[in-house]
Amino acid sequence: MKILVVDDSGFARRALIKLLNEQLEGWEIVDTGDGKEAVPLFRQHKPDLTFLDLTMPEVRGEDILEEIRTFDRESKIIVVSADIQLKTRENVIALGADYMVNKPINAEKIAQALTAVMC
Length: 119
Prior knowledge:
Helix content is 49%, strand content 21%. By secondary structure, it is of the alpha/beta class. The two termini are 15 Å apart.
């Protein structure tokens, strides 16, 4: 099984990867801090699960989500964002996200997200 982590913050990306490695054994994790690399990496690795930050320079997470959903409706996508507005949550769900986690992340939030999308 494969996971793609897309977040321009190196700290947030490393923290998420650490939490994922603690909770999931045997999963391959690919990551990028560049939103422009997200869709090509998605196409190359065909992840079962993607964690996607919304606020990144140059390419918005919403645009990445929308593009991925034009060719893949099955892969699970969890949006990770510091934006806690209800409108943002509604928008990303409408664009095809399976779940949204508010930053800062922790083990409990990740476990809830994984339970929600893997069941």
